[in-house]
């Protein structure tokens, strides 16, 4: 999974159930999806564009001829991981089945290779009509997933099959449809990412090569599994995914202050940042001239992991990271036993490997030994395996 997240196009058809799609949008966001709403022009008679923009925090278009410079139907089609159409009216189902492209949504469906889930909602007689049933079978044969509507009261006194399903059912079906996991739903995950910098003077600092890629891979993976994620980021150089709360720090001391404030309220702490081990004993307020450069007196920075782990409450899970160039496992096990973490991932950073890369090389260990080894694996793969281990311990 890339750091851009799982993109969902939420298509909204022109039926009275359009208002129920507002809740569906919110629940998709709760599960870590990044949602762009594409209503049909008819749908805007029920829920206006301003509502969709406010809820999604994204621009909303319904016609191909809006914002033409961006070629919106191709942009949306290429970016979408999934398309959900809810409600899917009889008219919209018919137009998609016959390959029509007379508004933005139907253009996006035609242009995209993303998996499509349709949630029909209409009057019972329209749903049971032979034409609608044939159109539904056509879409199923093409690989689209079409939910059976619920049976119950609709508008007025009418009742029968055609009712918009409850949001919980749609989310459950969507999770099965995508193969996605929501095993961290509602859990609060706190992650440190990047590398701290300790000032020498206004232009120089002691730092390290950490880019923040692994930290934000973990953040995106946790959010995708339903977690509420906050990242304490130190000098990162990667794109920040939507839906992730971030606070920015520079030094180990600043990170410590933020950690101590947030740790008591989290379920999971992942200490992925590379924290500088030392800082200058004195910071010069003016730039040190080259001919005045000499020895540098250093003092140790706070041990952030040991400090927060000392206040760990029952039920909290802590994951630590280590970067080593020799005796990786032995040194990692010593750090794990001293620092009070539940799990540790040790990176093999020989010759500067791993830092700034999309790949990782190392091992996950706990107090019993090695759990898993990774050789040139993606940081996304490592993120999900670490979270699998977290889920085991939370449960």
UniProtKB/TrEMBL annotation:
Q: Where is the DNA/pantothenate metabolism flavoprotein C-terminal domain?
A: 185-391
| Keyword annotations | Decarboxylase, Lyase
Any one GO MF term held by the record is:
FMN binding
GO BP term (any one): coenzyme A biosynthetic process
Can you supply one Gene Ontology CC term for this chain's record? phosphopantothenoylcysteine decarboxylase complex
- Domain Flavoprotein, residue spans: 7-173
NCBIfam families cross-referenced by the UniProt entry: coaBC_dfp
- Name the chain's protein: Unannotated protein
